[in-house]
Design a protein that fits this description.
This protein is mainly α. The protein has helices at 2-10, 22-29, 32-42, 51-62, 72-93, 109-123; strands at residues 48-50, 96-99, 104-107, 125-127, 134-136. 54% of the residues lie in helices and 12% in strands. Strand 4 (125-127) and strand 5 (134-136) form a beta hairpin.
């Protein structure tokens, strides 16, 4: 199933190789905050972000249904969880590079591939490789 999802994400019939062990990948993707971090980082043209900026973006996305700005306490909670847990999990899996001393986070070869997988599973759509248009591709992971 994972190979068919990856093939569908990339618009190919074959599996796109992700150099991350299945156990590490599934462990990393089980948390929504880590999935958001992967997606935010993959969307950066530079492939780099600072921890504080990532915490701001994740906090804003988590507060999205509310029109109220997020509080310093909410941001601190996200920042601390990223610093103490989530970024180490993603770095250990090889999904990101993370320097805790400088707060710098960077993509690896796996980041964009995994972000496409997350997008495919969460939205049940992917870009058609022929025209770049979004298309509904059927059910999610339980299909």
């Amino acid at each position: 199933m994972l190979s068919s999802l990856l093939g569908r994400v990339t618009g190919t019939d074959s599996c796109e190789s992700i150099d991350v062990s299945p156990d590490a990948l599934f462990d990393a993707l089980q948390n929504s905050r880590r999935r958001r971090a992967i997606q935010i980082l993959a969307d950066r043209p530079s492939g780099k972000i600072q921890l504080g900026e990532l915490a701001d973006e994740i906090t804003a996305r988590e507060q999205a249904p509310s029109s109220d700005p997020f509080t310093a306490s909410e941001r601190k909670s996200v920042y601390v969880s990223l610093y103490q847990s989530h970024l180490d999990t993603l770095a250990s899996a090889g999904i990101i590079r993370w320097d805790g001393d400088s707060g710098k986070i960077e993509t690896t070869e796996a980041t964009a591939k995994i972000a496409r997988l997350i997008q495919r599973v969460e939205t049940k759509t992917c870009k058609n490789p022929n025209d770049g248009q979004e298309e509904l591709v059927g059910g999610g992971i339980n299909e």
